[in-house]
Amino acid sequence: MKTFGDLFMIMDLHRQGLKVAVIARQLGMDRKTVRKYLAKDVGLPTYGPRQPKKRLIDGHVDYLKQRLEAYPGLTAQRLMREITDRGYKGGYSIVRDVVRELRPPGSGRGFAVRFETAPGHQAQVDFAQFQVRFSDNPDKVEIVWLFSMVLGYSRFIWGRFAYRQTLQTVLACHRAAFEAIGGVPREILYDRMKTAVIGDDEEGRVVYNRGLGDLASHYGFLPKACRPYRPETKGKVERPFRYVREDFFLGSVFRDIDDLNAQLARWLGDVANVRVHATTGRVVNEAFAEERPTLGSLPLIPFGSVLKLERRISHDGMVSIAGNYYSVPDATQRRMVEVHSLADEIHIFEGERLIARHPVLEGRRQRSVLSGHRRSVRTCDKSTSPIVYGDRVTCRPLDIYDAVGKRLAASGGVA
User: For 206-236, how does the pLDDT look when each residue is reduced to its tens digit (9 = 90+)?
Assistant: First the structure.
C-alpha cells in the first residue's frame, strides 16, 4: 500500500496532464499501480479553517461589548476587574486584545512623552469638570469639579470632588493633600486658573492669587504657572483626569458627593496607586515610598490664611458668602459684619467680637443655622396666653383674665 505522499504525487501529476507511463516512470511505480489509484478516484483531503478553541473570556464578550457601546472610554483594566467579579478566571492580555477589537473607532488617542522630575521636586495641580446624576436626586444633572494633585516622580494621585472652584476649595484641598502625602513638594505646577493665577504684570511676570501666595509661604513651596495655551506641560495631571474618568467614574453610581469622594478614595487606594504605571514601569506606591522622604516637612501649625470680607445681615439674620448662607445671633446689633473666610471655616465678627463660627458649606444656596442663634419661643396652648418679658416668653392661664374681669366689674371698673 502506497503512502499518502505517493498518492498525492500520483493525483497531482495526473492533474498536470501527464500520462500514466510518465507518472509511473517518474515515481518508480508499476503502471498498473498508477492506474489502480487513478481508477479509485481517491480525492485529496481538503482542510477548512480550524475551529476556534474555546476561551475563558468567550462567556464575557457580550458584556464587554455592551459596556464599550455605552462607555467607549472604559479602560481594559477597569473591564478586567468587572468581569473578574462576574467569574472570569483568565489573564489580562486576552482581555486587552478583545477590548481593543471591540472598542468603537476614534475613542482613544495617544499622548506626548513627558519630562521626568526628581523625587520630591514637583507636583501638578488642576481641576477637571464632571457631570453626574446622584442617585439621591436622579432627575438633576450636577456639575462637580475634581481637584487632583499628582506627584511628578512617583505619579501618586490624590483627589477630591467639590461643587465649586473657589479659593477656599483650593486652599482646603491643598492642605488635605499635603496631610495625606505626609509632606510638601518643592514646587507645584498650575494651569492658569483664576484661583491660582490672576494674570501677568507689565513686565510679563506671573501674578499669583494672594491666598495661594500665603499658602505657598506657609508650606514652603514655589508656585509655578504653565505657559499660556500649553496645557501639555502639565501632562502628569492631565492624563490622570482621563484615567479617573474612564477607569473610575464612567458607568458607576454615586449616592451624593460624599459617597462620590468615599468611592474615589477607595479606588485611589485599591487601584490607581497600586498599579504599575505605564510610563514609569513601576508600582506607584513603591515609587511613592522612595519619594516621600524627599518631600518637605509639614509645618507645626495648620494653615489658617484669612480672606476678609464685609457683609450685610439679611432680614432673617443670615449672611451670604460664596452663594451660601450663615446665621448670626439674634442679639447682633450691627447690620454690617466682618467675615473671615478660612480654608475650612467661616468666622463672623461684630466689631472685634467673634459672634459665629461655621464650617464651610459645599454647593450653593445651603443654609447653616447654629444652635443658640435663634431665641427659643415657647408655644402656648389654647388655655394659656403668651406674655413677653424682654427675650423671655411665658404662658399665663386664661382663667386669670376671667378673675380680673369679675374683680373689675365688682369694683366699678377700678382694679
Answer: 666 777 888 898 999 998 887 554 444 444 5
| pLDDT per position as a tens digit, 107-137 | 554 444 456 789 999 999 988 999 999 999 8
DSSP 379: P
Dist. CA 336–CA 338, nearest whole Å: 7
Angle formed at CA 197 by CA 194 and CA 201, multiple of 5 degrees: 125
**Considering the entire predicted model, what is its pTM?**
0.59
Which pLDDT score, from 0 to 100, does residue 165 have?
Answer: 84
- Full DSSP string of 273-341: GGSBPTTT-SBHHHHHHHHGGGSBPPPSSPP---EEEEEEPPTTSEEEETTEEEE--TT---SEEEEEE
> What are the φ/ψ torsions at residue 206 (nearest 5 degrees)?
-70, 135
Cα 170 from Cα 123, distance rounded (Å): 15
C-alpha cell at 324: 451660601
Burial 95-133 (b: 16+ CB within 10 A, else e): beebbeebbeeeeeeeeeebeebebbbbbbbbbbeeebe
Residue 227's pLDDT is 58
Grid coordinates representing 26? 517518474
pLDDT of 401 strictly over 80:
no
- Helix, strand or coil, per DSSP, at residue 223: strand
Kindly give the pairing relationship between strand 318-321 and strand 324-327: antiparallel
Percent of the chain at pLDDT > 90 equals: 36
Backbone angles phi, psi at 268, to 5 degrees: -60, -40
